[in-house]
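BUG-418 | component: ligand-complex export | severity: low

The export step for C6P jobs runs without errors, but we want the raw record kept on the ticket for reference. Input record follows.
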Amino acid sequence: MSALSLEQLTRQMAAHRADFPILAQMVRPNVPLVYLDNAATTQKPTAVLRAVEDYYTHMNANVHRGVHSFSEKATAAYEAARDAVRDFVGATSAREIIFTRNATEAINLVAYAWGLANLRIGDQILVSEMEHHANIVPWQMVAERAGAHVLPIPITEDGQIDQDAYQTLLGSGRVRMVALAHVSNVLGTINPLADLIRMAHEVGALVTVDGAQSAPHMPIDVRALDADFFALSGHKLCAPTGIGALYGKRALLEAMPPFMGGGSMIDRVTFAKTTYADLPQRFEAGTPNISGAVGLGAAIAYLRGIGLEAIHAHEVALIQHTMAGLADIEGVQMYGPSADQRAGLVSFTLRGVHAHDLSAGLDQAGIAVRAGHHCAMPLHEKFGIAASTRVSFYLYNTLEEADHFVQTVAAVQRFFAR
Ligand code: C6P
């Protein structure tokens, strides 16, 4: 991309900053917020804030229960949000979309409902070394109960799945499930999912995709990927916290027992026997996060109005610019693939400065980043570090913010070198 088109693109994106009221906040007097912690959670545009307020102001009622007008309105809004998610991920039917609290709950749903019904003693679940704890721990918990084993798929030094090692692991004949991040929340790696899924399917294994870091930033097509399950979190894509979604292939979901029991998910209850509702209600026990779903629908409409391709291109431009700047600072070690092969985030260490000190120094300049292990301890252990600092961009970030960030990293380093 030429410098001019990069500037044009980032200028075009900067126009959307005004949609996010929080971006006008000060961290402290005269220190504006520079929000670069978008992999942790994203800010909310006015369109989403208004949709949630509008829901509570004009239609609040419980869904799928009453026959009164407001319940019907609330149900229509809730189901319209489900349809928005279906379209957003490219699913065929809204029955394939289950609302959850977040990506973590979506993965737990698959691990427990599918896993406990299907895993047998000696079966294997593969998870990559770059997984977030949300895509490791549920599988370990279920594997322990089923007598199955969770095995790590090695990654290369530059943070890519080692495909030869993956093929060898698949060759065991015991792999039933492969759990993979679409985009790593630490390395920024965009995994070649279509190939990795095809390889799993060739040996009869299913694939659960952790889409927490991809769905907010690039177009998703679960059918083109042939993903069996795909998990996402609303709060990482401009929606409120407490709402997420699971996509599952209809036949797989239909064959799965419920995850949780209670109201809404039943067909008929007697003390002798209970039968369950059809999809998707079977997996949505209890009163759901209705306003959150409405907010998610509004967030999806907002993002699609801008265009996921444009958002991705903008973030790639920002990360290339930032990585070039960080590379000029002596003692910076970045993790993961080269700038042209990653999503809009980078984790790094700075020689002589602990990640928490660097993060505190950046905060003095109003810059919010994340420091620590980013819920990926095995990955940090693999690279022999306890913590890293991560900068992560979204559609509203600018080149000026990226420059401010790089200059402040250099300034913090000078401070600690004194
Ligand atoms: N990562 C981060 O700062 P929840 O908490 O359920 O919304 O998302 C869990 C999750 C799952 N997978 C990946 C790849 C993730 O990055 C996350 C959340 C945040 O990196 C918070 S730990």
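Assignee comment: Attached the raw record above. The radius of gyration is 22 Å.
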